[in-house]
Design a protein that fits this description.
By secondary structure, the chain is of the alpha/beta class.
Length: 558
């Protein structure tokens, strides 16, 4: 069956991101020519992608969907909403359904993208409300998570209901009073659920994920016993944790400074919407914070992943305009270390340790809890919904397989727990499923201006980063077929000595002169051909002499 001509009686589930990988959560649900999208996420690039601001899914598949009725957003984390600008550039009229909190995050985010205007933002139906989008009916269910207003999605399809859990956990004493609505999930289970699309992030962890109050008690103990300034770094969107820190600071007689652009943005949004309560006079402006006694200050700061330009990194290396940190101060790392960021985090920790700063992490005290379900929580969700199919999502292969094994151990028929990856279509009916590996997927790299960065650009940047760049300029007499004067060369980031008079520099000049005068006749008639000829000869010379491959920039002057 072709992905461009599905039958109306089949339900197709197509992950463009977020399945068999962490980040870029983007799921397409399709019946016939009709489709909706749940979430449009991104992930942050590693050091191997210089100049890339975000990584988003390739959305080619959406061109094969004649009617896309809407984008449903489950919550405001970047791995679920960070790809919205990229999606809107390709599908500018798509209606977006989201909670007040997510819509406010998007409004501010989209202001940074001046080319995106007139976005169709609509409220996500809450409680028992429902919105019909083509053949799909959409309802939402409250779930606890590490960001306010997170919603699971109940998707009514012609074949039956799909429950898309999004990110969730169970918390019997949530900071904001919002619990996962397990009774509503159970009501759907009683009526019959076709498929449960379930969070796999912590499926390989035993037991249950602790509630946010556990982290709050850990923070209360650590902050309460501190003598100097306390710096706490966490994810900017963790409003529940920040509310807990505000409460702890008030109890301990400390004022709170919020430092870092993304953190300030999230806190300001939460305050406007009444999602966080900061007593009058408790929050202090960053520029005034260092003027109060050490025991009276708690600083909430960005940089939990060791980002080089984050507020914490700049404070640690004494590059921050308003803050410094010194011996006797305390840093609390209240976040998960995302795989791949360990070296960056340790770099910051080592510098702080050298200064004499005490550091407390989740390995030392209960100062962080996850926002995702562990094994017992997954069992609880399966018991409530009793789906015909269980489809693990949101995780890498190890987490997906662990979630599958859990479902089978809890009594699910192993033939009804399909494992899929991005690039595959899962086709469902009540009795069977099939997988088709025919969906175009991949990553697209986006810079800070919203432009797509090509592989060639990345390759050149890596080359410059590794071996530098060498530019050469010369003037030639085309009629007499000779070079005029000596070529001028300039290098940046090129390791060997390379100044006029150096042996290597003179050898490079001689190479360029010989390359020009021995160039084939057609190169003398075409400046681009001549530049290409010189480029190749100079590249080979430098590679032979230095075993390096700098980026060569030939400039034929008129």
């Amino acid at each position: 069956m072709s992905p461009t001509n599905p039958t109306d009686r089949q339900l197709q589930i197509v992950p463009l991101g977020g399945v068999a990988e962490f980040g870029k959560n983007t799921m397409v649900y399709r019946c016939g020519d009709d489709a909706i999208i749940v979430d449009a996420g991104m992930m942050f690039p590693g050091d191997e992608l210089p100049g890339v601001d975000t990584v988003v899914p390739d959305l080619k598949y959406l061109t094969q969907c004649p009617r896309i009725h809407g984008l449903i957003l489950t919550h405001g984390h970047e791995d679920h909403v960070g790809g919205v600008p990229h999606l809107l550039r390709q599908h500018p009229t798509i209606p977006i359904y989201a909670t007040d909190h997510v819509r406010e995050i998007l409004r501010i985010r989209l202001q940074e993208h001046g080319d995106i205007r007139d976005v169709d933002l609509r409220p996500l139906p809450l409680a028992d409300d429902r919105v019909d989008l083509g053949p799909f009916g959409v309802q939402s269910l409250a779930v606890a998570h590490s960001i306010p207003c997170t919603r699971a999605i109940a998707l009514h399809t012609p074949l039956g209901p799909i429950i898309h859990t999004a990110d969730f956990k169970f918390d019997d004493a949530p900071i904001d009073g919002v619990r996962t609505e397990i009774e509503r999930f159970r009501e759907f289970g009683d009526a019959g659920v076709l498929a449960l699309m379930i969070d796999s992030t912590n499926a390989d962890r035993l037991g249950s994920t602790p509630g946010e109050h556990v982290a709050l008690e850990g923070l209360r103990s650590v902050v309460g016993s501190a003598d100097g300034r306390v710096f706490v770094t966490l994810f900017s969107s963790n409003i529940h944790r920040i509310q807990g820190l505000v409460d702890v600071a008030r109890e301990c007689g400390r004022r709170v400074a919020v430092v870092g652009a993304s953190l300030i943005r999230h806190v300001d949004i939460a305050e406007r919407l009444g999602l966080i309560r900061i007593p009058d006079g408790l929050r202090i402006a960053p520029r005034k914070a260092m003027g109060i006694p050490c025991r009276k200050l708690l600083v909430v700061v960005t940089g939990s992943q060791g980002e080089p330009t984050s507020a914490l990194s700049r404070i640690a290396f004494d590059r921050h305009r308003d803050f410094y940190i010194e011996s006797g101060d305390l840093l609390v790392h209240s976040a998960r270390k995302i795989p791949g960021n360990e070296k960056r985090i340790e770099r910051v920790f080592n510098e702080l340790t050298r200064i004499g700063v005490d550091i407390v992490t989740a390995d030392d005290a209960a100062v962080h809890v996850s926002g995702h379900p562990a094994a017992d929580d997954i069992h609880r969700m399966l018991e409530a919904t009793r789906p015909a199919f269980v489809v693990p999502v949101h995780g890498e292969q190890r987490q997906l397989r662990a979630n599958r094994d859990l479902a089978v151990s809890f009594g699910q028929d192993p033939d009804r727990v399909p494992l899929m990856s991005c690039g595959e279509r899962l086709v469902l009916d009540w009795d069977a499923w099939t997988l088709h590996e025919d969906v175009p997927v991949g990553d697209q790299w986006v810079d800070s201006l919203g432009e797509i960065v090509s592989y060639d650009a990345i390759r050149e940047r890596r080359q410059v980063g590794a071996d530098g760049v060498v530019a050469v300029a010369w003037t030639q007499d085309t009629l007499r077929r000779r070079i005029e004067g000596d070529p001028v060369l300039s290098a940046r980031g090129f390791a060997p000595p390379f100044q006029p008079g150096d042996t290597l520099y003179r050898g490079a000049q001689d190479t360029v002169i010989e390359s020009v005068v021995t160039a084939p006749p057609e190169a003398w008639l075409d400046p681009d051909r001549m530049a290409e000829h010189v480029h190749g000869d100079l590249r080979r010379f430098l590679r032979r002499r230095t075993r390096r491959r700098p980026l060569i920039v030939p400039l034929l002057l008129k």
